[in-house]
Amino acid sequence: MWRKVVIAALLTGISAGVAGSAVSAPTPGQVVARFKTLTGARLAVDRRSTYPGHYTALGVVQSIGNISRYGRFTVWVVTSGSEDDVTQLLADPHTGRLGTPGPASIYWEQGATIAGDQYWLAKKRYGSNLVIWWYGTAQKVDARFTRLHRALLAIAADS
Predict the structure, then answer these.
(1) How far is CA 144 from CA 72, 78, 102, 147, in A?
(2) By Cβ atoms counted within 10 A, which residue in 40, 64, 69, 155 is the most buried?
């Protein structure tokens, strides 16, 4: 009998430990606060790009200093808890399909601005609900992306 009690107690402890160690999805407010702590830069909500009930778009003020340090980017915080919303942010907008990521699990997309300037968009997922869109002139990352990558890895790990 005591063996059954010990086994039940061990199983209860193991399942409680697993549930207690589950990583939760960070809220937009937590992402803003942690990004400020890690980088010194302040993220603000981009209300035009935010889709209430689905995801919140965050970015830094587009100053010369911020662009030289981080480039142009948007951090998407999926607030719905839906994997479909994460997939939608990573998918090709023309086909609606999630392609195959390249090295470092980055989804690349080529585009052009209204003025005709060519750009590359790097899309990458962090944790359960963070997606970054980072704009560059070539299909490669640089030190600006690496700075964002490190911050988002830490934010996803802390949550």
Answers:
(1) 9, 23, 19, 5
(2) 155
Return the residue matching tokens 């090709």. 92
pTM: 0.83
Task: Print burial letters for 108-120: b (CB count within 10 Å at least 16), e (below 16).
Answer: ebeeeeeeeeeeb
Distance CA 138, CA 118 (A): 9
Tokens representing 42 are 């302040």
Nearest partner of 72 among 146, 12, 145, judged by Cα: 145
What's the alpha-carbon Rg for the chain, to the nearest Å?
19
Per-residue pLDDT of 70-93, as tens digits, reads 999 999 999 999 999 999 999 998
Return the HEC string of the chain.
CHHHHHHHHHHHHHHHHHHHCCCCCCCHHHHHHHHHHHHCCCEEECCCCCECCCEEEEEECCCHHHHHHHCEEEEEEECCCCHHHHHHHHCCCCCCCCCCCCHHHCEEEEEECCCCCEEEEEEEEECCCEEEEEEECCCCCCHHHHHHHHHHHHHHHHC
